[in-house]
Amino acid sequence: MATKKVGILGATGTVGQRFILLLADHPVFTIHALGASSRSAGKAYKDAVRWKQARPIPENVKDITVKSCDAELFKDCDVVFSGLDADVAGDIEMAMLKQDIAVFSNAKNYRRDPVVPLIVPTVNPDHFDLIPHQRSLHNLKKGFLVTNANCSTTGLVVPLKALQDAFGPISHIIVNTQQAISGAGYPGVPSLDILDNVVPHIGGEEEKMEWEVGKILGGVADDKKSFSLLENTVVSATCTRVPVLDGHLETVSVKFANGSPSLEQVNQVLEKYSSEAEKLQCHSAPEKPIVVTYDADRPQPRLDRENLKGQAVTVGRVRKCPVLDIKFVLLIHNTLLGAAGSSVLNAEIAVAKGLI
Amino acid sequence: MATKKVGILGATGTVGQRFILLLADHPVFTIHALGASSRSAGKAYKDAVRWKQARPIPENVKDITVKSCDAELFKDCDVVFSGLDADVAGDIEMAMLKQDIAVFSNAKNYRRDPVVPLIVPTVNPDHFDLIPHQRSLHNLKKGFLVTNANCSTTGLVVPLKALQDAFGPISHIIVNTQQAISGAGYPGVPSLDILDNVVPHIGGEEEKMEWEVGKILGGVADDKKSFSLLENTVVSATCTRVPVLDGHLETVSVKFANGSPSLEQVNQVLEKYSSEAEKLQCHSAPEKPIVVTYDADRPQPRLDRENLKGQAVTVGRVRKCPVLDIKFVLLIHNTLLGAAGSSVLNAEIAVAKGLI
Amino acid sequence: MATKKVGILGATGTVGQRFILLLADHPVFTIHALGASSRSAGKAYKDAVRWKQARPIPENVKDITVKSCDAELFKDCDVVFSGLDADVAGDIEMAMLKQDIAVFSNAKNYRRDPVVPLIVPTVNPDHFDLIPHQRSLHNLKKGFLVTNANCSTTGLVVPLKALQDAFGPISHIIVNTQQAISGAGYPGVPSLDILDNVVPHIGGEEEKMEWEVGKILGGVADDKKSFSLLENTVVSATCTRVPVLDGHLETVSVKFANGSPSLEQVNQVLEKYSSEAEKLQCHSAPEKPIVVTYDADRPQPRLDRENLKGQAVTVGRVRKCPVLDIKFVLLIHNTLLGAAGSSVLNAEIAVAKGLI
Amino acid sequence: MATKKVGILGATGTVGQRFILLLADHPVFTIHALGASSRSAGKAYKDAVRWKQARPIPENVKDITVKSCDAELFKDCDVVFSGLDADVAGDIEMAMLKQDIAVFSNAKNYRRDPVVPLIVPTVNPDHFDLIPHQRSLHNLKKGFLVTNANCSTTGLVVPLKALQDAFGPISHIIVNTQQAISGAGYPGVPSLDILDNVVPHIGGEEEKMEWEVGKILGGVADDKKSFSLLENTVVSATCTRVPVLDGHLETVSVKFANGSPSLEQVNQVLEKYSSEAEKLQCHSAPEKPIVVTYDADRPQPRLDRENLKGQAVTVGRVRKCPVLDIKFVLLIHNTLLGAAGSSVLNAEIAVAKGLI
């Protein structure tokens, strides 16, 4: 099979750098074009980027000339991955879509759009079912637009989906996050703000978490023209920033509408959960979507963020919550499954489903 | 007034070092004896201690000869402050009590004892009312035993007390802590465990928080011979360790038995809360027990832990909780109000009440 | 004595915030005007600043209206302290000087000017002798311009001055610095660059250290119209950034032109060193300019940076250098003696000398 | 070729864990036995170890039963790798040697032994030439004992060897290290000592560096019965601990006995340096022993420690030293090439040379 040509927007940013690493040697996708701000356009990638990854820039990417994010310049791409900031993502991603390109966005701009799927690959790939309707609205043949969830939302919905599938609706969720600095991009969080410190606020993050869960865990309407948002699930989020490089930790309490399962049942369900991504044998799908740990002091960001190449969510400390029903701790790699890794796996799923 | 002679047990530990700094130049108490393990006994304090404070060892303490924690050696002390670890605190503190000494303990050993007050100085100094009964049981004239709360519990109960006084019983509390490394003593947390990391478990901490709240916020029985534990308040705690030197951050959601107050009411009540400690004009009492901050990203450990000399709790981000009623963020200096500072202020209150 | 009216330029920056704390309650100086960028001008200080200090904004400063750094607006100040960045400091400081104001600058712009003293207060306050000549050149009555040294240079020259006074010229110096993030201002060093990392480069810092030592440790010509730079002292500096909030650590090896003193002689000379600043009984002068430590693992930034209110340099680990003569480790608080603290003490010296 | 059976001593420690990762899937060596303290003996490895690596315990190692380090129990091993602490390494390693086993030690105990090679694999594998003499002294057929260098020494001697080969003897070396916490093992450095701090002392480290360079860079006597230590090379080391997980940074100044090469010559020589390890096509040999970087702010621990799988030394900032001749910055992964990685590569070289 011929590989698909892909473009990366925001290629010099922290999410963009992760896209480079994930796609430089990919069996299905070939990096064809890199887009960044006009300041970077015209430069070789290695000269335009402030590379902050522990692995070096892939050799086959170093000398690609960066382009501005003009849709015209990406029209021979089959797929575009966007790591653009929200302030510019809206217009650029829409222009790419209108070029009939398959667009996978990490920005928040279209997440609440009623015809744009908000997909966590190991949770709700069935939301791709809305693509034919989206195409017809935009009068497109091949192109479409799909977004990732927020990184913290992504970590949360994976175990919630497993629990909801097994035990029915979850009525109440209280979640507290301890988020890594890489989530804020570069230069991002000033070191004077975070060394020997915790910052108990991340602008807009709590609102995103409280809203996105309802779309992702909701279903697709029978006519496949709209999403059914969960109506009876309430989420309360508190988001904090901690001095950790990668890996968001979340402590979660949940209440089930139909009564609480036992701890054994919960652990068993989390262990056995599987998603369409593995069944489709996608290249970036983790062996399983959830790694369950039984050690008393796990998961931990430094020790668990790379579990299953950063594409799984690690869940531990499942125990009774005296106020709601069940509480647990989860960890997600915020720039892999929480960002670039979701986009790439979503695109692999779209290929497997024949959408690309 | 003649000052009171005090002994410090566990004087070389991290809590002991804080006692030294708080008491070296105190208007009511004079350091008279220092106790530590037999390994340190017989040495000058400056040679026995691994001093880890940013301020140097007070000159008048450097050359005090450290004793073993033999109660006989402390019998001419009016007061003993104990920063001993739980594995030895039980026997030693009881022996000191039997010497008719007023003992203020930071250990967990006697917190659940039905005749030992568990006192947070700006919350429940009325629990000193049980002292006459405790003395009569032990056949003492001057001595008694009072304990501090756990550091995280201490931070939590200060605003809860203000809210309970104003709005009636709190039925449900979900709290997540992000605790400083100094809470684990020295050597305590290995750096390999906490650099670029969060450890989502602190042995026994969640159980302490879930239980202690009910004793502290409960009342004293009319006959002043027992405590009435709260029966209709449920606490769910998750405790984590973060790479912060001092200052525990807690994110809290609460539900009121009698309906939710408004955010304005909550802020106002927190601002206006005052305790007996200030009214008694105790030396270490903060100007007010709670500092309310309205900045979106506060409180923060590094910037707020020293507020009012570390004896106040800072509360911010008061907002509606979609699941319970109200949520907020608080910060407590874990080795000041959360440990040694509570003991010293408790002792000052006891002096003001004529118990010492 | 009437206090002197002072202005602070760059008042919202990290050095400016230190000036605020040092001057808010000063016996000789009264804060009269605050200058910052045009973006801040017109706002109350508390609204213009992103305050990053562990102590709160002083009450008497909170509501001062910030001005732009227009010299006309500062003409009723006796003294102006400048924490401006080098890119704007040159013009603004010169304009202030021309208003006949005494200007104390932290910027590098005029450090190499042949008629501008580069003064470390506990090292070379005799360089104030050039002020009459400077005034005559600029046709001023009261005004003059004096600069601080670079923060790392400042730490280095204090013990070097003590050694040079006692043992004659130092011919060779190799210094390696490990500098705190606060030295880069705010937002300054991105956390992604420094967490779990060291950055072995600080732009221009090595050149500053290698040059400034020669001016500071050189003398004033007999006619008091020029400085005699050291000609036979060679400095080799390597500067690195480490994840420390405050406090630059420097490891130093030196060779003496006239042969090496013994370790005992070196320690004795460092212990006994005193400067004019203490003799003039200046308010901000440390009890002594150098704290000598004999502990094998000191000085350390977190434990020693506050020594003598951050106005002393702490020196330890004095030992033989197998390559040069003597090696040692020093620590300086980079935003106190290394920046704002030097300026304030310089100004106090100038008052004591009758120059203000 | 049949693989060699290997034992790992100190298998539960931090160096031991690195050995496990390096050897679990090795083409030449097969893990046959794991040794640890008597406290761990009899347990499955996964139960005995506090695993602190970002990658999980290899499946084929998890259930190996740990033994005590009794030489008798390892006698069917061809090779033993020792990550034992110095306080027990001496006796145990000698007992293993007497069982006629090839022993590769990370401890300091035998480094100064006149018949034990101290080998950095990409520097002085020719020191294996002394093995026949060592065997004859101990009356062994197959066994021998070889030690690694100290981790900081290892980083230093790689570029020094390249320079010495090209430009002749180096007469003077001043080196300052900033060492990662993993170098101290587990629990190792308490977090209270290193967060927001630097500790300018590591017990015995400076002495090791100052001595070991002379043995490693010296030669083997013509009769292959002794080592010729460098006599005219003087090393001055200052060692500090910084809050970095892995990767020692060293800033180095050197003086050449025969005059200074140009910066271009130095860079070229470093770039072109190659060692016998690559020529022998050893599995763990890096592509080249030195990675030269020309970025102004590199090498950095977090970004460069994994270069060439942690088996290369990264060198940057080559520039003139005003005091000696040349200065530069280097980085070594302290638990890979600086410890376990050296041992494994040394053993591969020994196999290639027919010694095992």
From TrEMBL, chains A, B, C, D:
Gene3D superfamilies per the UniProt record, alphabetical: Dihydrodipicolinate Reductase, domain 2, NAD(P)-binding Rossmann-like Domain
InterPro entries: ASADH-related (IPR051823), Asp_semi-ald_DH_pep-lack (IPR005676), NAD(P)-bd_dom_sf (IPR036291), Semialdehyde_DH_NAD-bd (IPR000534), Semialdhyde_DH_dimer_dom (IPR012280)
Catalytic reaction list: L-aspartate 4-semialdehyde + phosphate + NADP(+) = 4-phospho-L-aspartate + NADPH + H(+)
One Gene Ontology molecular-function label: NAD binding
Catalytic residues, chain numbering: 151, 248
Pathway: Amino-acid biosynthesis; L-methionine biosynthesis via de novo pathway; L-homoserine from L-aspartate: step 2/3; Amino-acid biosynthesis; L-threonine biosynthesis; L-threonine from L-aspartate: step 2/5
CDD domains reported in the protein's UniProt record: ASADH_C_arch_fung_like (cd18130), ScASADH_like_N (cd02315)
The keyword Amino-acid biosynthesis is assigned to this record: yes
Presence of the UniProt keyword Manganese in the record: no
EC class: oxidoreductase
One GO BP annotation of this record: threonine biosynthetic process
Keyword annotations: Amino-acid biosynthesis, Methionine biosynthesis, NADP, Oxidoreductase, Threonine biosynthesis
Domain Semialdehyde dehydrogenase NAD-binding: 5-131
Assigned EC number: 1.2.1.11
Family: Belongs to the aspartate-semialdehyde dehydrogenase family.
Cited function: Catalyzes the NADPH-dependent formation of L-aspartate 4-semialdehyde (L-ASA) by the reductive dephosphorylation of 4-phospho-L-aspartate. Mediates the second step in the biosynthesis of amino acids that derive from aspartate (the aspartate family of amino acids), including methioinine and threonine, the latter of which is a precursor to isoleucine.
Protein name, entry field: Aspartate-semialdehyde dehydrogenase
Provenance organism: Rhizopus delemar
Lineage: Eukaryota, Fungi, Fungi incertae sedis, Mucoromycota, Mucoromycotina
